[in-house]
Amino acid sequence: MDSFVLAFALVLFASFFQGTFGLGMKYITPLKWEAWWLVYSVIAMVLFPVGWALLVVPDLWEVILSSPEEVIFMAMLFGFLWGIGGILFGVSVEYTGISITYGIVMGLAASVGSIIPFFQIQDAFSQPSFPVIMIGVGLLLVGVFITALAGINRDKVRASASVSNPKSIGKGVAIAVTSGVLSALLNVGFSNASAVAEAAADTGVSPQNASLAAWVVVLVGAFIMNAGYSISLLFRNNSWSSFGTAYAGKSYLWAILSGLFWFAALGVYGQGAALLGDLGPVVGWPILLGLALIISNVWAYRSGEWDNAKKPFRQLLKGLAVLILAVCLLGYANYL
After folding, report:
1. How far from each other are the two terminal CA atoms of the chain, in whole angstroms?
2. How many C-beta atoms lie closer than 10 Å to residue 246's C-beta?
3. For a surface tag, which of 75, 98, 102, 129 has the fewest beta carbons within 10 Å of its beta carbon?
4. Domains: count for the chain
């Protein structure tokens, strides 16, 4: 199979997981948010990534410890900052629902998370793919804007029918914007941890699997932020007893599934990005998030978020069409 086709297939597969993991946030109750988030974080940022990496990179800890200290520090720092965005993502979903949150967060994360690694490439402006990437990212932002606007109009329609609280929309959007900017740093951290992946590849591991070593480093910082915040809330709210709440089996199940889906998206995306070469984090990241936005809206539609909102839904479809065009352009950019 052609490496580009395989890479695109992996990114497409990853986008399914990325667009699906947020469903679990609809099933936090009866657990407290902080209890649910801690379980999710342990699965998504420690158990699954470390377990997977150890299976394919036998010398994982030696590889990490032998990598330059500044690389490890910066990767962990970007992961920590992303962790703030990840927490805000979960908060925003509770205010605005899946559609608006995914629209804003994915759009900003995709564009900022693509442009920063691109500018870090030597002679970036002289790359033949530069104008196509910029047009693709620009279209991505347009598609996300249309999608987010459709979600806001949907909530206005539903608010007029006393389905939601319109006062929460503005606050939720503000939280989502902050989350989107910080969420971009996850891919920046992955791109800057390339030295760790290269060190893993030097031990005989395939470039695709070597990318998992880079994720382990980035997610150390992410876990410190997420777990630290959750534990602080557990103490502040005295909510440790939430772990023993009756009838919480479904909440625990979705916390575990969300964690598995979330890192499955990153792990598979990293393998696809490795096959795309130097432009992998630049092209693969916005494709991943653009397709994930489409998938998340499929789930949102099935869950009834677009009921009784026909006009905003047609607007949503236009936004998704622009996103598909942007994804196609970004895929073409890797050929240049």
Report:
1. 20
2. 6
3. 129
4. 1
